[in-house]
Amino acid sequence: MAAHRTLPPSAGDSRFKMIDVGEKPPTRRRAVACGKIIVGKEAFTRIREQSLPKGDVLALAEVAGIMAAKNASNWIPLCHPLALETVRISFEFQESDSSILARCEAIATAKTGVEMEALAGVNAALLSIYDLTKGVNAALWISDIHLETKEGGKSGFWSHPKINAETQPAAQALASGNRLEGLKCAVITVSDRCSRGEAQDRSGPAIRELLKKEGAEIIGEKLVADEVAQIAEAISNFALEQEAEIILTTGGTGLSARDVTPEALCKLNGRVVPGIGELLRSEGSHKTPMAWISRSEAVQIGKALVIALPGSEKAVREGVASLLPILKHAHLMILGGGH
């Protein structure tokens, strides 16, 4: 009787899938994870005094945590390899139950989060403490390993719901460095067809949605035709009369005869900020080579930063994602702030 052999699944039937993050823009990602190990009174005192037989326990546990965070993708099968920019391991002695709290912070500018790296760092740090302490006390107990906070990407800031409510405002404030809290923003859609009612404006509302999600105050929206005078007037009104701090336009940045948004910006004699246009084209080129023929640009008019985005909703969403890490800092610089 022939032996039965189960055939492996075809590629299309794979039971595992590493998520494709190729289309996502890289953003600053940060995650903080923690956990604790209960070591008993004797080991607790000796760890603090650095008198255990194997030496300085926490110094080696710190190194172990950093190494584990850097190598998380090597032992978690579907975890993306990331170029970490910072890994910090810290410890806190807790007298109440003779425990040591370990915390790992991981930071990277990446297309996916660093939660697994932070959790890997905490686990390795705690296991290292276990290994160096078990000769003094075999009854060790590792517990409460969890993600405290994460930030970056579309989801913005997140904190574990069981974290003490008193710590959440401070954590939220720490994560809000790049958010647009309180900034007065305006949105201008440039489109002949939309202005005539022949098409629905999707890009302007998309910008509004993204800015509001980041805490910005939308002080006005305007829909104008592809006419230099109309575009310039709308920008001037928001920048100089309504005192908008960030003005985003959408549409009119291509090569057709009716694409005149850059010409309107030129007419206003603004202070050109060339790096922003370069950023939008560079990031857009990862999605489509057509980004290189976009004439997106930015200028400073008074105290307002005006940025001309392409006209499609998809390009607008990708463009705003690229801009979010720099908008608040750019505004502060315009006001005279330092780096």
Biggest sheet strand line-up: 7-6-8-11-10-9
Overall number of strands:
11
Anisotropy-based shape: elongated
Structural class: alpha/beta
Let me know the average pLDDT. Answer: 88
CATH architecture type of the largest domain? 2-Layer Sandwich
Low-confidence segments, ≥5 residues, pLDDT <50?
A: 164-177
CATH topology term of the largest domain: Alpha-Beta Plaits
| Tally of helical segments | 11
Radius of gyration computed on alpha carbons: 26 Å
Explained architecture:
The chain is an alpha/beta fold. It has two domains: 22-176, Molybdopterin cofactor biosynthesis C (MoaC) domain (Alpha-Beta Plaits); 184-334, Molybdenum Cofactor Biosythetic Enzyme, Chain A (3-Layer(aba) Sandwich). Helix content is 36%, strand content 23%. The chain contains eleven helices and eleven strands. The strands form two sheets. The protein has a six-stranded mixed sheet, sandwiched between helices. The protein has a five-stranded antiparallel sheet with strand order 2-3-1-4-5, sandwiched between helices. β10 and β11 (304-309) form a beta hairpin. α8 packs across α9 (261-267). The longest helix is centred in the C-terminal third of the chain and has 22 residues, at 313-334. The chain is elongated. The model is unreliable at 164-177 (pLDDT under 50).
What secondary-structure arrangement, pairings included, does this model have?
Layout: E1 27-38, H1 41-48, H2 57-70, H3 72-75, E2 86-94, E3 99-110, H4 115-133, E4 141-151, E5 158-159, H5 168-175, E6 184-190, H6 192-195, H7 203-213, E7 217-224, H8 228-241, E8 246-250, H9 261-267, E9 271-272, H10 274-284, E10 297-301, E11 304-309, H11 313-334
